[in-house]
Amino acid sequence: MSPDVIVVGGGLMGCSVAYRLAKDGAHVLVLERSIPGAEASSAAAGILGPSVESFEDALALQLGRRSRELHAVLAEELDELFGVDVGFRRCGVVKLAFDEAELASLDAQSSTLQLHGVRCDRWSPEELIEEEPAANPDALGALCIAEDAQVEPRKLLSAVALGAEQEGVTFRSGSTVHSVNVEAGRVRGVQLGDETIEVDRLVVAAGSWTTLIPGLPLNSETIFPVRGQMIATETRPPVFRRVVFGAGGYVVTRPDGRVLCGSTMERVGFQRGITFGGMADVIHKATRIAPRLRDAAIEAHWSSFRPGTPDGLPLVGETRIEGLFVASGHHRNGILLAPLTAELIAEAMAGKPSSRQSEALSPRRFEESRG
């Protein structure tokens, strides 16, 4: 059977889009050059914290909060259908301040969030230590946002991929798309070496590699790789109850004591690897947040590429080439925005009128002219 839709990319973004479209009745084929989740999806910390990461941009905050609530619904759905716990926990997020300037920034952030209807609490140093005893006692104060959450990306990806397969989605690993075939202003299929697969609806969700696929009306600088290095450790008892930001980094604690510390943001092209400088940076930030981590053993370390964009917003929607959609460029918020991205792609394919949100994310804002 020929597919109704091809999705290029088998990370969480591609799997989420495929799952949603299949639930709407489409026969979907996912093409993945490696194995599903081999890149950023499996390497992410799983922070669902739009109130901390996106508070300065009203649209980004609105999108993030909406998608976070879709995560809650998705987690319940996957648990009911497949008995899979994806680790969704509304644990709350805390942001620390270490000097007067950061303290003033917390006050401004608190005011901004409250204007948008986000409940947040300003903590004194004493309240911080009472709530999170492992936090650095040198912190001058903190901001707590109780509504924010976390999820475990590997578990989530596995569950979404399982759901997609149950809905009839076909996955093909080791399938590198060499070009998008376009004729008379509309997509006609994809080229995989000597093989051509015809399709009239195509979603490119290839992360940092998206604009390297010939045939897209986007130049290579529209979506670019940002390397992030991270460290994993484990503590008993768990070092924190909440996700904690501070000193330019973050510490994410799972209920069983696993701890993820991150992260660098490096524009080094597609240069993979772990560096002394990157590890030193992550360790400095993590131990500034929680001095207790100085005695923790490094159990794992890795790096991955996040797909960045010039304006910090993802590309989600149809391009000027009819039937050609993009779902990429989510940078640090790929896990957070995956359910919303799937919803927006599904709505666009169904021909629903565009909203202010979908217009702001349209790939057409970066498209190359027809020449």
CATH architecture of the largest domain: 3-Layer(bba) Sandwich
How many helix segments? 10
- Reported by name, the CATH topology of the largest domain is FAD/NAD(P)-binding domain
The topology string of helices and strands comes to EHEHEHHEHEHEEHEEEEEEEEEHEEEHH
Total count of domains: 2
Number of strands: 19
What average pLDDT do the residues reach? Answer: 95
Shape by Cα distribution: globular
Oligomer: single chain
CATH homologous superfamily title of the largest domain: FAD/NAD(P)-binding domain
Q: Could you estimate the helical fraction of the residues in percent? A: 25-40%
Runs with pLDDT <50, length 5+? none
Major β-sheet annotation? 8 strands, mixed
The end-to-end span amounts to: 37 Å
C-alpha Rg, in Å?
21 Å
Taken as a percent bin, the fraction of beta residues is 15-25%
CATH class category label of the largest domain: Alpha Beta
Task: Tell me what you see in this structure.
There is one protein chain. The model has no long low-confidence stretch (mean pLDDT 95). The chain has 371 residues and is of the alpha/beta class. It has ten helices and 19 strands. The protein has two domains: 5-44 and 154-223 and 310-365, FAD/NAD(P)-binding domain (3-Layer(bba) Sandwich); 89-148 and 224-308, D-Amino Acid Oxidase, subunit A, domain 2 (D-Amino Acid Oxidase, Chain A, domain 2). The two termini are 37 Å apart.
